[in-house]
Design goal:
With 305 residues, this protein is α/β, with parallel strands linked by helices. The chain folds into 2 domains: 4-105, ATPase, nucleotide binding domain (Nucleotidyltransferase, domain 5, 2-Layer Sandwich), CATH 3.30.420.40; 118-281, ATPase, nucleotide binding domain (Nucleotidyltransferase, domain 5, 2-Layer Sandwich), CATH 3.30.420. Helices cover 35% and strands 20% of the residues. It contains 9 helices and 12 strands. It has a 5-stranded mixed sheet. The protein has a 5-stranded mixed sheet with strand order 10-9-8-11-12, sandwiched between helices. A two-stranded antiparallel ribbon has the order 5-6. Strand 8 (124-130) and strand 9 form a beta hairpin. Helix 1 crosses helix 2 and helix 3 (105-116) packs across helix 9 (287-293).
Length: 305
């Protein structure tokens, strides 16, 4: 059996898995994320050593990070700020004495779902992260599309399409602009919309529960969220025209979200037919770490059917 190691470097935890030939997770470990660079390197090295011992072999390593690796090898756009401008992959390869491949965490999610998840068998898969932020990744015929700027799939920092007068110019975004898709479709974006339009501070789970119980304001909030998601995904379809869009992140757990977004697409997509499928992810919280392992593909598995 050929195994590969996947590492998901999160802001609060580092998860590591050993993945088998057919995508089965053979071993899983989780440890807290140190809040400094040297501590992070040491923690990853220790985690990999533990996985090596249990797996009884030294598999290749893929790592998903909350940012991107620039062509010069330094990290950029990382929420874990202690990684920024650091040669993370070079330093890890030195400590681990083997090659390491890295991908943005949203790219790793997209790859996992394209290989053997919600987008398995499709030529073009767009993987969506809807969580505390909004990100995405593109997989074409089993291969990640990074782009020369390493930002392919970053739809969350484009403006929400077809803004209404009430929406424009949109909330301020941490990136320095206003009206980014992330400010509308992230979890905090829905919570902020609730506060701004109803005067009530409610969590996303409370909004959903209130909508289910018939609260009119909560129902309107979710309907507006569905419409905004449809608009934002229509923009992706008009440019990329993917076969499948896979929804991930905490907000993807909203009831019937994929179906609700799909129903809204015909109003916005520049076509008289919409054949792009919108689906929930197949691997849940495991998709990111699995996708990191799939940065080293198994023979045949990453090929579309």
């Amino acid at each position: 059996m050929t195994t590969r190691i996947g590492i998901d470097l999160g802001g609060t935890k580092i998860e590591g898995v050993v993945l088998g030939d057919r995508g089965d997770i053979l071993i899983r470990r989780r440890i807290p994320t140190p809040r400094d660079y040297e501590g992070t390197l040491a923690a990853i090295a220790s985690l990999v050593a533990d996985l090596d011992v249990v797996a009884e072999e030294r598999g290749p390593i893929g790592i998903g990070i909350p940012g991107a690796i620039q062509p010069n090898g330094l990290v950029k756009n990382a929420n874990s700020t202690w990684l920024i401008d650091r040669p993370l992959i070079r330093d890890l390869e030195h400590r681990l004495d083997r090659p390491v491949r890295a991908g943005n965490d949203a790219n790793c999610f997209a790859l996992s779902e394209a290989v053997d998840g919600g987008g398995a068998g499709a030529d073009v898969v767009f993987g969506v992260i809807l969580g505390t932020g909004v990100g995405g990744g593109i997989v074409v015929r089993g291969q990640l599309l990074d782009g020369p700027n390493r930002i392919a799939g970053e739809w969350g920092h484009n403006p929400l399409p077809w803004m209404t007068p009430a929406e424009s110019p949109g909330p301020p975004c941490y990136c320095g602009k206003r009206g980014c898709i992330e400010t509308f479709l992230s979890g905090p974006g829905l919570v902020s919309d609730c506060l701004a339009t109803t005067g009530r501070e409610r969590s996303t789970s409370e909004i959903v529960a209130d909508a289910v119980s018939g609260d009119a304001d909560a129902v309107v909030l979710l309907e507006r969220y569905h419409d905004r998601l449809a608009r934002a995904l229509a923009g992706v379809i008009n440019i990329l025209d993917p076969d499948v869009i896979v929804l991930g992140g905490g907000m993807s757990n909203l009831p019937d979200l994929a179906a609700a977004a799909a129903r809204g697409l015909p109003r916005y997509v520049f076509s008289n037919t919409v054949r792009t499928r919108i689906v929930r992810n197949a691997h849940g919280d495991s998709s990111g770490v699995r996708g990191a392992a799939w940065l080293w593909p198994a023979q045949g598995l990453a090929e579309p059917r």
